[in-house]
Specification:
The complex is a heterodimer. Chain A is an all-alpha fold. Helices cover about 75% and strands about 0% of the residues of chain A. Chain A folds into two domains: about 80 residues; about 80 residues, no CATH class. Chain A contains five helices and no strands. Chain A is flat, with a radius of gyration of 25 Å. Chain A starts with a helix and ends in a 6-residue tail after the last helix. Chain B has one domain. Helices cover about 75% and strands about 0% of the residues of chain B. Chain B has a two-stranded antiparallel ribbon. In chain B, strand 1 and strand 2 form a beta hairpin. The two termini of chain B are about 35 Å apart. Classes of the chains: A mainly alpha, B mainly alpha.
């Protein structure tokens, strides 16, 4: 009973998600259409830089409406099943933290230089991802060993990347 | 730059070009073996690292990488049931059951030989078809080019995972990204919002690196993959009698893969699935039942996906239309190295066609020898944990996007598109059409406006007066209609198979 209820609720969430995605695209299409109108100069519309963006904005508006029709009609008729993304379930908090680590990296590079920033970035992201993958609890000694290995690998990788790209391939590093 | 054929052969067989083909092929193979890294991502990263190389050497490396990554992708499909790239999605259907029985070596050996055969067939088809296709391409005017751009986008949208509408929306986004910067026809700034750095447009490589590299890392952070376990390898090199027995199937699926690969917007993954489907229909008495370790179930998809490379080069070189996302990135590489894709490329730089043939053959030979001799070593690479691999990918993404203009702004663009790519994938939007849209956007824009200018009020009349335009219009309509009639025919079966595999959540990559 509980399961069935949960399943129904999940479908509703998916419908809402599809409606949300469609609405975002519709709003985006309308915005681009409006922006494109400002691109038209004194020349005729077909010769102006606004012509193609206007067509694309119209296509986006049209298809986002098509995208919206199905979940809305299903929601109105009380039907639960809706075609949605097949992407496996993603943990938003993990992605959020991962994204923050990723964004911090170029900022760190600008402030501390490539080598140091890369070392810290690799160590933090590797540790974060390692902790995400392992379910079982570890002893303090094991954890310490894990951290030391990650620090060592991070140092070696950062150093090798610098030597390989800067000295060998002559590719400038940030 | 008109050169004699011998001069071109010598150029292609120069030691540094050969070394770079080898390096590219080995790197590509590693990219293919590692689950989570796609051929497209590998080429995008490598293109950014070839700025310092001559055009010939850069292409030696890129072609090597492309061939190598498709070649290597079968390894992880066989060993751990996760295809290294989507182009090997069907290889695991029969490869993995063999691997579980300790016959991974047999499966890898078959896949390697089949890949080599596919590479050869692809090269032959490319050599035969390119010049007739070029003749046709030279007759293309602005009407045909803008229609072709839409055909390419519609076709990739129709075969991409997820809904057709989402594919088209993704492609439209790509078109818009391509519009950023100064309009070459009127000089008007489009969607730059006063930013000087956007005046020249968004650089293609950081966009690709973001879409395929950074987004992949984000997907990897957010999900759990099954535990990776190294399998027993066993005998590797297949017997001569086995190869002889399967030679007809190789020839047939190789031809099929080349034709499928040559269709604009259709890539290796469709060729792979169609090859598998063909083998299932054609072979009445497989070595084992399909899905339980049939040799034919490994040979057919591997021959088809490798021969699709040769096929995909045909529209890329003659029309400047990429076959799939990987070809689109390769086209970006052409542009970076100062070559304008399209029919005139082959007219003025015929040597590149011969060089591509030489590099493809070299890469195939290297892969056959290297692939068969290092099975045990390379099998261990596919079990490198993601927590070590993905952070290194981010570092490479940063280096690759920065190296283009030595600008940290490009790194920010890569991250921005990485987030966009992640969000699109999360909501079921395929990335392939987006990439194709970025490449085809300028072609569609300039040719559509030119056509309207030329024809004036008689635009539609003119469109129907031109035979090639009519054919392209029919293809466009058919590709749209095919999406609403998926429950019938071969296409539907392939699509269902594809969706079934991706839906299981093993892998969903661009």
């Amino acid at each position: 009973m509980e399961r069935g209820k949960g399943q129904g609720h999940r479908m509703d969430k998916k419908q809402k998600r599809e409606i949300g995605v469609g609405t975002v695209f519709l709003a985006f299409g309308v915005y681009i259409f409006y922006e494109s109108l400002t691109l038209k100069g004194k020349e005729s519309l077909s010769n102006s830089g606004a012509f193609f963006p206007l067509i694309i904005a119209s296509i986006i508006i049209l298809f986002s409406i098509v995208l919206l029709i199905k979940p809305i009609s299903q929601a109105l008729s009380g039907e639960k099943k809706v075609l949605v993304s097949e992407e496996p379930t993603q943990s938003l908090w993990k992605v959020g933290i991962g994204l923050m680590i990723l964004i911090a990296y170029p900022i760190l590079v600008s402030n501390t230089g490539f080598l140091l920033a890369t070392f810290f970035f690799l160590a933090v992201l590797m540790y974060f991802m390692k902790r995400l993958r392992s379910e079982e609890k570890r002893e303090r000694r094991q954890k310490l060993k894990e951290i030391l290995i990650i620090l060592f690998i991070s140092f070696i990788v950062a150093f090798l990347v610098k030597i390989l790209f800067e000295d060998l391939f002559r590719i400038p590093l940030p | 730059m008109e050169q004699s054929i011998w001069g071109i052969i010598l150029m292609g067989l120069h030691w540094d070009a050969m070394l770079l083909v080898f390096l590219g092929a080995v790197t590509g193979m590693l990219v293919g073996i590692l689950p989570g890294l796609t051929a497209t991502m590998g080429i995008a990263l490598l293109v950014s690292l070839t700025y310092g190389l001559s055009v010939v050497n850069a292409f030696a490396m890129m072609i090597g990488l492309w061939v190598g990554s498709i070649f290597g992708a079968s390894r992880s499909a066989i060993l751990i049931n996760i295809p290294g790239t989507p182009a090997s999605i069907a290889t695991g259907f029969d490869g993995y059951p063999l691997s579980k029985e300790g016959l991974a070596g047999h499966a890898i050996g078959l896949a390697t030989v089949a890949s080599f055969a596919g590479n050869l067939i692809g090269v032959v088809v490319l050599a035969i078809a390119i010049f007739p296709m070029l003749e046709l391409a030279l007759r293309f005017g602005s009407f045909e080019f803008f229609l072709l751009a839409f055909v390419g986008l519609t076709m990739i949208s129709s075969i991409s995972p997820g809904s057709f509408i989402k594919g088209l929306l993704s492609g439209s986004l790509g078109f818009l990204v391509a519009m950023i910067g100064i309009d070459p026809m009127t000089g008007v700034m489009r969607f730059t919002y006063g930013s000087v750095s956007l005046a020249t447009g968004v650089s293609f490589i950081p966009v690709m690196i973001g879409l395929f590299g950074i987004s992949e890392v984000l997907v990897s952070i957010g999900e759990k993959y099954p535990k990776l376990i190294a399998e027993k390898i066993g005998r590797v090199i297949p017997s001569f009698s086995t190869i002889k027995k399967q030679s007809r199937l190789m020839a047939e699926t190789g031809l099929l893969g080349s034709i499928v690969g040559a269709l604009p917007g259709v890539g290796g993954e469709v060729a792979c699935l169609m090859g598998y489907d063909y083998a299932k229909r054609r072979v009445k008495n497989p070595t084992r039942p399909f899905g339980k370790g049939a040799d034919e179930g490994i040979i057919a998809p591997e021959t088809a996906n490798n021969s699709a490379i040769g096929g995909a080069i045909i529209p890329m070189l003659t029309l400047g239309i990429p076959g799939d996302a990987a070809t689109a990135v390769l086209l970006g590489g052409f542009i970076i190295h100062g070559l304008e894709p399209g029919p005139l490329l082959l007219v003025y730089h015929k040597e590149f066609f011969y060089l591509i043939i030489i590099f493809m053959l070299l890469a195939g030979i290297f892969m056959l020898v290297f692939g068969l001799s290092t099975v045990r070593l390379l099998s261990k690479i596919s079990v490198i944990p993601e927590y070590l691999l993905m952070p290194i990918i981010v570092v490479l993404c940063v280096i690759g996007s920065f190296a283009l203009h030595c600008s940290i702004a490009d790194v920010h663009i890569a991250f921005a598109f990485g987030i966009l790519g992640y969000l699109l994938r999360r909501f079921g939007f395929p990335l392939g059409p987006l990439v194709i849209g970025i490449i085809l956007g300028p072609i569609a824009d300039s040719n559509l406006r030119r056509s309207v200018m030329l024809a004036g009020d008689d635009f539609f009349l003119e469109l129907f007066k031109r035979p090639i335009s009519v054919v392209l219009l029919l293809v466009l309509i058919l590709s749209i209609l095919s999406t609403s009639a998926r429950s019938k025919g071969v296409l539907i079966k392939v699509w269902g198979l594809f969706k079934g595999v991706v839906g299981k959540g093993h892998l969903k990559k661009e």
